[in-house]
């Protein structure tokens, strides 16, 4: 399985901090998003937000980045710390 | 000062004086100490702010801050560095963030401190939720912060 986690506004929109996606359903970050969107129309809409960022195993990546079982994929809005 | 002690993500407040002492103790090679601290303002975008909630991505935050500090060390001749960032619920006037840098001469510490702060703003996975008179809102990232960070690569 691929572990998927959400932060901040996205976490609240989805009403959940994380889930899992089967590695059989997704081989890239963009496909993880697609697989999550299939579960629910609201999820699909929230995840379609172009400003969302993605990290795989704590490293910032783009949508075509490959993922495999055991990876941690995080989706979140642009950061606002400091 | 070991690497681990350079970064602290914490819910509790910090003492500015204690942090300055830690940067200075047994450090007579460095003549310059530059510190920045950020606090919760009582206003934003014309609204009265009552407080902030800060969320972060544990593990990734520390990793990114370490990368930013490492880049600063390669670019400037600096001695000690300390970055503290608070998380959780914060009230008006409370401290949010601290960046302290020492160097032999002031230019390196000034520049490195600003660099670390500018990149913390746009790279480190922290998110602020603001509690205002109109309710709670997650803050949007500012284009000006992005431009400020980009200006370092010019």
Describe the protein.
The complex is a heterodimer of chains A (82) and B (154). With 82 residues, chain A is α+β, with helices and mostly antiparallel strands. Chain A has one domain: Beta-grasp domain (Ubiquitin-like (UB roll), Roll), CATH 3.10.20.30. Chain A contains 3 helices and 5 strands. Chain A has helices at residues 8-14, 29-39, 41-47, and strands at residues 2-6, 18-21, 53-56, 59-61, 72-76. Chain A has a 5-stranded mixed β-sheet. In chain A, a hairpin with a 2-residue loop joins strand 3 (53-56) and strand 4. The termini of chain A are far apart. The mean pLDDT of chain A is 96. Chain B has 154 residues and is α+β, with helices and mostly antiparallel strands. Chain B has a single domain (3-153), classed as Molybdopterin biosynthesis MoaE subunit (Aldehyde Oxidoreductase, domain 3, Alpha-Beta Complex), CATH 3.90.1170. Chain B has helices spanning 16-24, 60-75, 106-123, 143-150; strands at residues 7-10, 32-39, 43-44, 47-56, 78-86, 88-91, 95-103, 126-132, 135-138. In chain B, strands 3, 4, 6, 8 and 9 form a 5-stranded antiparallel β-sheet that branches. A 4-stranded mixed β-sheet of chain B has the order 1-5-7-2, with helices on both faces. The longest helix of chain B is centred in the C-terminal third of the chain and has 18 residues, at 106-123. Chain B is globular. The mean pLDDT of chain B is 95. The A-B interface holds A 5, 7-9, 12, 55, 58, 74, 76-82 and B 38, 54-57, 59-60, 63, 85, 96-97, 117, 120-129, 138-141, 145.
Give the SSE map.
The complex is a heterodimer of chains A (82) and B (154).
Chain A: E1 2-6, H1 8-14, E2 18-21, H2 29-39, H3 41-47, E3 53-56, E4 59-61, E5 72-76
Parallel strand pairs in A: 1-5
Antiparallel strand pairs in A: 1-2, 3-4, 3-5
Chain B: E1 7-10, H1 16-24, E2 32-39, E3 43-44, E4 47-56, H2 60-75, E5 78-86, E6 88-91, E7 95-103, H3 106-123, E8 126-132, E9 135-138, H4 143-150
Parallel strand pairs in B: 1-5
Antiparallel strand pairs in B: 2-7, 3-4, 4-6, 4-8, 5-7, 8-9
Helix pairs in contact in B: 2-3, 3-4
